[in-house]
Specification:
With about 260 residues, the protein is an alpha/beta fold. The protein is globular, with a radius of gyration of 19 Å. It contains ten helices and eleven strands. The chain starts with a strand and ends in a 7-residue tail after the last helix. Helices cover about 40% and strands about 20% of the residues. It folds into two domains: about 160 residues, P-loop containing nucleotide triphosphate hydrolases (Rossmann fold), CATH 3.40.50.300; about 70 residues, no CATH class. The model has no long low-confidence stretch (mean pLDDT about 90). The strands form two sheets. It has a six-stranded mixed β-sheet, sandwiched between helices. The protein binds adenosine-5'-triphosphate (ATP). The site of adenosine-5'-triphosphate (ATP) has 12 residues, from strand 2 and helix 1.
């Protein structure tokens, strides 16, 4: 049974149909790509999967339960995390605090315990600080734990966003253009990191990416959106040679 499955998802904005008939599924442990020309509806699809937008119609089943109508924080608590195309870190907080905040979502002490500084609260805080640092180590950001997030170079901010998403302990993670703005060396390292975290954290991953070499190299299957509709679905090899995909990308800068 798929971990997530969408049924005939539609999103309209006034007269504009941004996404229609959107049907995808991801099995547990898969790494799947979602590609398409600019304005095809990829981010709108992510926004529906994470409760940022409510679908105009259709259904989203996550772990065999509909998540339509749920708020973004409820969806995060159920196990779906994401990163954003335009990085959304807490830029005036330290690197480690960005990760600690995400861990706090799953902590069990009460607000009163926090204010009163109870023993349990202190233990939880120490545990979270330890876990956050371990996570930063995986992302090679532990030596920058105390720096302001805003002072990190772009590529590191992107990595921190993924680390923060992982701190919510998701089962499914949606990455919106994780390699945007990265140089080839950083992109290569990111590719290895994505493969690593999938295994290490038992994740299922859906990836939007314009960097075709990244998508073709790491994804097992790829969905292609064009004008809000899925025009192709298959292995990287099938997608590369699909005439509809080639046509959709004509005039775009990306070579597939
Ligand atoms: N909040 C909104 N209000 C109105 N129109 C929107 C809104 N969000 C997205 N759209 C429109 O929906 C369509 C799909 O946009 P979307 O951002 O999902 O595409 P995309 O595939 O993610 O594009 P890109 O690759 O450029 O990020 C576009 O025509 C966009 O202008």
């Amino acid at each position: 049974m798929p971990i997530i499955e969408t049924k005939q998802l539609v999103k309209t904005f006034g007269g504009l149909t941004a996404v229609s008939g959107f049907e995808i599924y991801l099995n547990a442990g898969e790494l799947i790509g979602l590609i398409g020309p600019n304005g095809a509806g990829k981010t709108t699809a992510f926004n529906m999967l994470t409760g940022v937008y409510q679908p105009s119609s259709g259904d989203i089943r996550f772990l065999d339960e509909s998540v339509v109508g749920k708020k973004p924080y409820e969806i995060t608590q159920k196990g779906i995390a994401r990163t954003f195309q335009n990085i959304r870190l807490f830029k005036d907080l330290s690197v480690i605090d960005n990760v600690k905040i995400a861990y706090h979502q799953n902590v069990k002490y009460s607000v009163a315990a926090g204010i009163l500084g109870s023993k349990r609260f202190k233990q939880e805080e120490q545990e979270i600080a330890k876990k956050a640092l371990e996570l930063l180590k995986i992302f090679k950001l532990d030596h920058k734990a105390g720096e302001y997030a805003k002072n990190l170079p772009y590529g590191e901010q992107r990595r921190l966003e993924i680390a923060r998403a992982l701190a919510t302990q998701p089962k499914l993670i949606l990455l919106d253009e994780p390699a945007a703005g990265m140089n080839p060396q950083e992109t290569q390292e990111l590719m290895e990191l994505i493969r690593f975290i999938r295994g290490a954290f038992d994740l299922t991953i859906l990836l939007i990416e314009h960097d075709m070499s990244l998508v073709m190299n790491v994804c097992e299957r790829i969905y292609v959106l064009d004008y809000g509709k899925i025009i192709a679905h298959g292995t990287p090899q099938e997608i590369k040679t699909n005439p509809k995909v080639i046509e959709a990308y004509l005039g775009e800068e990306v070579a597939i």
